[in-house]
Design goal:
CATH architecture: Beta Barrel
Protein name: Catalase
Shape: globular
Bound molecules: protoporphyrin IX containing FE
CATH superfamily: Catalase core domain
CATH class: Mainly Beta
GO molecular function: heme binding
Strand content: 15-25%
Number of helices: 8
Length: 362
């Protein structure tokens, strides 16, 4: 029987120079963002700029959850409307043939309860990526990553594809030799598989009511499970992922399970370092809800404009019960506000947080 670590504010231990490192990261991101906006004559997200599908769906919290799982948003067995945005990690529009990390952002609407920050909203966002850890998992390490990312706006898609191939080969060799994979290699070494078959992770921890957890979403219905590990065809072109998502949802529903991995030991499952994978054998990912995505037009022009230009997904759009935890999460509080503010200002579009699903265009 596991003992779940109880949430308390002093689980977070800020770095002494955290403010300054965060300032550097945000300033570097903004510089890259301005270059990208000038290139496209349009403001994009500082990260996860390219969307592949925007879906309306429903989050169904499971009935009868045990006390340790029935926390925060998951305390009551009820359904919430959600907006999901599939994306790719860079802050520029790259070919879908470049194998980089993919995103799955879920905005749960109409969630009652005290807020993590005083934003007056009623949304709970979960921002997930198809990798269990953030290889640069503290703000100090992330500031180093920024130096790699800063070079990317000047690199072509084929240079990035080659860098990915070299990194995957290096990762395989190191893995076979039983050697640790350096964070820089891990970041570049994503495989290019069908986005709908992937499993997505919060990478970093968040408060889970009385406890602490990482969140993940995994394919549940057989039609998306069958896509796991299916490579994206090379000849499918620059927008292969959008075409796959649109083609799938033209006549298919899909289901994903939302899971919580609770912290049972602060040494092996640290809160301050998101590069450490919490061992599944010490604490499994336990299912708390089903995400139902019905068949629909996943990429109408109106939807793309709304999701890319109006909406902002942000880990700090959160209940107090799901407060983001650790230095990476704290740095995101400033980074997302900056990126979203710049994007909306550049495009002359007002920031708006939806209250109902009716606001998502068909
Ligand atoms: C725990 C690791 C992280 C995960 C899982 C994650 C995930 C995501 C996802 C899925 C999106 C796309 C949201 C959408 O569809 O609109 C996103 C956007 C973004 N991410 Fe992260 N991210 C992480 C860490 C970071 C860090 C450390 C920073 C910077 C300090 C950062 C900066 C951004 C920015 C600026 C955006 C665009 C925000 C906007 O303009 O609306 N992320 N992230």
């Amino acid at each position: 029987m596991s003992t779940y670590v109880r949430y308390r504010p002093d689980l977070e231990q800020p770095f002494p120079d955290e403010e300054e490192l965060t300032r550097q990261v945000v300033a570097a991101m903004q510089h890259a963002n301005e270059q990208v906006a000038a290139k496209h004559r349009h403001g994009l997200r500082d990260a996860h700029a390219k969307s592949h599908g925007i879906l309306a769906g429903e989050l169904r919290v499971h009935p009868g959850l045990p006390e340790h799982l029935g926390q925060g948003l998951f305390a009551e067995a009820r359904s919430y409307p959600v907006i999901v945005r599939f994306s790719t990690a860079p802050g520029d529009l790259r070919s879908d043939q470049v194998p980089v990390q993919r995103g799955f952002a879920i905005k749960v609407l109409g969630v009652p309860g005290a807020r993590a920050i005083d934003d007056g909203f009623s949304t709970q966002d979960f921002l997930l990526v198809n990798h269990p850890t953030l290889p640069f998992g503290t703000i100090a390490a992330y500031a180093d990553l920024q130096k790699i990312l800063e070079k990317q706006p000047g690199q072509s898609d084929s240079q990035l594809q080659l860098a990915g191939l070299a990194a995957r080969t290096a990762a395989r060799v190191l893995h076979r030799a039983g050697r640790p994979i350096p964070p820089s290699v891990e970041t570049l070494a994503a495989a290019n598989n069908h986005i709908l078959g992937e499993t997505f992770h919060s990478m970093a921890a968040l408060r889970y009511g009385d406890y602490v957890a990482k969140i993940s979403a995994a394919p549940l219905s057989p039609n998306v499970r069958a896509l796991t590990g299916t490579p994206v065809e090379k000849k499918a072109g620059e927008s292969a992922l959008r075409d796959l998502v649109v083609g799938f949802f033209a006549d298919n529903d899909a289901e994903y399970e939302l899971r919580a991995q609770l912290c049972t030991d602060l040494d092996t499952m640290p809160v301050e370092d998101a590069s450490v994978r919490w061992p599944d054998d010490l604490s499994p990912h336990q299912v708390v809800a089903t995400l139902h995505l019905p068949a629909q037009d996943a990429y109408s022009d109106a939807r793309r404009r709304y999701a890319d230009d109006v909406l902002s997904f942000n880990p700090w759009h959160a209940l107090q019960a799901h407060r983001p935890l650790g230095s990476i999460m704290r740095s995101r509080r400033r980074a997302y506000a900056q990126s979203s503010g710049f994007r909306h200002g550049y495009n002359g579009i007002e920031q708006h947080e939806p209250a109902t699903i009716a606001e998502l265009p068909a």
